Amino acid sequence: QVQLVESGGGLVQAGGSLRLTCAASGSTFSMKAMGWYRQAPGKQRELVAWITSADITNYADSVKGRFTISRDNAKNTAYLQMNSLKPENTAVYYCNAGVYYYSDYSTGYYWGQGTQVTVSS
Fold first, then answer.
1. Could you say which of 5, 38, 71, 76 has the lowest number of CB atoms within 10 Å?
2. Rounded Cα gap, residues 21 and 44, in angstroms
3. Could you tell me what percent of the chain has a pLDDT over 90?
4. Coil, helix or strand at residue 1
């Protein structure tokens, strides 16, 4: 079992910035790909950004050039730097991670509890 805890959400004015953090903890594991998803009221959860273990990134078209995903493997942590925030970016942001367990050579995929990001106009 791996637990993912997101932090860094909050209220920010349009044009402002926030940095989200996703920290993974639990049994002995190796981090695989990590990603950020978001879900706005009345909308389906959607991919925001994804980063592989080889640091290959992928972004939703709507956030390219404004958001940056990164990771610190030593800390089992992923980040989402969000700049030039827009009101339409308001959503609950969720971390997702794939992990490899050294104990039994298995893989697992987990979601965090989410962190609220609210962008005012």
1. 5
2. 22
3. 83
4. coil
